[in-house]
Design a protein that fits this description.
Helix content is 18%, strand content 17%. The protein is an alpha+beta fold. Among the domains are: 64 residues, Structural Genomics Hypothetical 15.5 Kd Protein In mrcA-pckA Intergenic Region, Chain A; 79 residues, 2-Layer Sandwich (Pseudouridine synthase), CATH 3.30.2350.10. The protein has a 3-stranded antiparallel beta sheet. Strands 4-5-6 form a 3-stranded antiparallel beta sheet. It has a two-stranded antiparallel sheet with strand order 7-8. Strand 7 and strand 8 form a beta hairpin. Helix 1 crosses helix 2. It starts with 9 loop residues before the first strand and ends with a strand. The N terminus is likely disordered.
Length: 207
């Protein structure tokens, strides 16, 4: 059975002989490419994976020929309303969107921002994103930060983007405006914490 996105179902496969000696989590990542290795490892630990009727650990080695049954965990769909909010789309194809988020726009709905967010705008532009957790958003920028945000348009693209972020191959570059004279080659090394008066901001905090 192949479950649809947002549903829970059972997938089954046989571990081929050429995977003998591989860790179970690595073998599953090859057998079920629509799911990230991180998710598969978590499901093994939760007992959602059975190998020949038994529960294995992620590091257990396959011998080849085992039958695997995977109970796919349900992922919650995005429970957010679509709103007609203009988007500055830098790139769009069948796999992903790249949005130039302006300063002042909140990424996700939350306390104090139940609507008028980037997620609301995305759901108006591409209603199918409602089938994905967080409408395909895999990273975020603070409200007052402008910049590019990558949005997955399907589960496979979301999986690949999340794996790149986890492996730190997804590079991010920030530019900041400062007052005063900067010395070339200098390093700013100071403790950062919640702003003492504006709780939605961060600031350099001593002590």
């Amino acid at each position: 059975m192949q479950p649809g996105h947002g549903e829970e179902g059972i997938l089954s496969a046989n571990i081929p002989p050429e995977m003998a000696g591989e860790r179970l989590d690595k073998a599953l990542a090859r057998l079920f490419p629509d799911f990230s290795r991180m998710s598969l490892t978590q499901w093994i630990r939760e007992g959602r994976v059975q190998v020949d009727g038994a529960t294995w650990r992620p590091r257990d080695k396959a011998r080849g020929g085992e039958q695997v049954r995977l109970r796919v965990a349900r992922e919650e769909k995005t429970g957010c309303a679509a709103q007609d909010i203009p988007l500055d789309i830098v790139h769009e194809d069948e796999a992903l969107l790249v949005i130039d988020k302006p300063a002042g726009l909140v990424v996700h709905p939350g306390a104090g921002n139940p609507q008028d967010t980037l997620m609301n705008a995305l759901l108006h532009h591409a209603p199918e994103l409602a089938e994905l957790p967080r409408a395909g958003i895999v990273h975020r920028l603070d409200k007052d930060t402008s910049g590019l945000l990558v949005v997955a348009r399907g589960p496979r693209a979301r999986k690949h983007l999340e794996e790149q972020i986890a492996a730190r191959t997804f590079e991010r570059e920030y530019h900041a405006l400062v007052n005063g004279v900067m010395t070339s080659g200098g390093t700013i090394d100071a403790p950062i914490g919640r702003h003492p008066h504006q709780r939605t901001r961060m600031a350099v905090r001593e002590g």
